[in-house]
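Weekly sync, protein design subgroup
Attendees: M.S., D.O., the rotation student, P.L. (late)

Item 1: inverse folding check
M.S. brought a backbone from last month's batch and wanted to see whether the design step gives back something sensible before we order anything. D.O. pointed out we never logged the input encoding, so this time it goes straight into the notes. Structure tokens as presented (204 positions):
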């Protein structure tokens, strides 16, 4: 188990109980690699990230505070499948970041034309109390797979923009004399049922 405190929050990396107690080594075999021979020597790395083994995926995203190369993880259905390996400010535009995600080669089928990569900010939830790894997770990227051909360059969207990508989404504009403490990402309810959310806010 490892822990990291950064501007993005507190992040714990926890392996299985058996691996922590007994110790374990995971083997990663690249496709089409040659078979090992007797007494072949290998370097043992602490993680896939340290081995720099993975598919490099280019990303472009808004300048979001808290992102950190080597610390911000990538998930698919609560399984960690990669990490942010590089991050820089776009040339001539400080509002845009460009970066590289290092994705587990076994997850190559997730990277398609209609796939979305979403940046999610950690929000405390009582449901996470039963899952320590989710509870201590900091801000992260999530892959939402789609169909199509292979794609290795994505524009990352924020989680409050994801609804706009869904089919048949109804977009409405509200105006008010003051903000009423409303902010981007807050849910819209009808009879105590969440039916939408505030995706953008602008003060006039």
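Designed sequence read out in the meeting:
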């Amino acid at each position: 188990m490892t822990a990291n405190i950064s501007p993005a929050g507190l992040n714990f990396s926890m392996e299985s109980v058996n691996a922590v107690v007994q110790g374990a080594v995971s083997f990663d075999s690249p496709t089409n690699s040659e078979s090992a021979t007797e007494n072949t020597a290998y370097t043992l790395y602490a993680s896939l990230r340290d081995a720099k083994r993975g598919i490099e995926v280019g990303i472009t995203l808004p300048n979001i505070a808290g992102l950190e190369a080597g610390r911000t993880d990538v998930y698919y259905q609560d399984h960690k499948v990669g990490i942010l390996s590089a991050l820089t400010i776009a040339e001539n535009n400080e509002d845009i970041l460009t970066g590289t995600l290092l994705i587990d080669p076994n997850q190559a089928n997730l990277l398609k034309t209609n796939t979305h990569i979403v940046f999610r900010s950690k929000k405390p939830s009582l449901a996470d109390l039963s899952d320590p790894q989710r509870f201590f997770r900091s801000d992260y990227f999530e892959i939402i797979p789609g169909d199509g051909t292979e794609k290795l360059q994505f524009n990352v969207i924020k989680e409050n923009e994801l609804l706009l990508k869904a089919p048949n989404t109804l977009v409405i504009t509200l105006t008010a004399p003051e903000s009423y403490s409303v902010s981007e990402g807050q849910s819209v309810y009808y009879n105590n049922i969440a039916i939408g959310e505030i995706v953008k806010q602008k003060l006039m």
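Discussion: The chain has a mean pLDDT of 80. Helices lie at 17-22, 132-135.
Action: P.L. to compare against the previous round before Friday.
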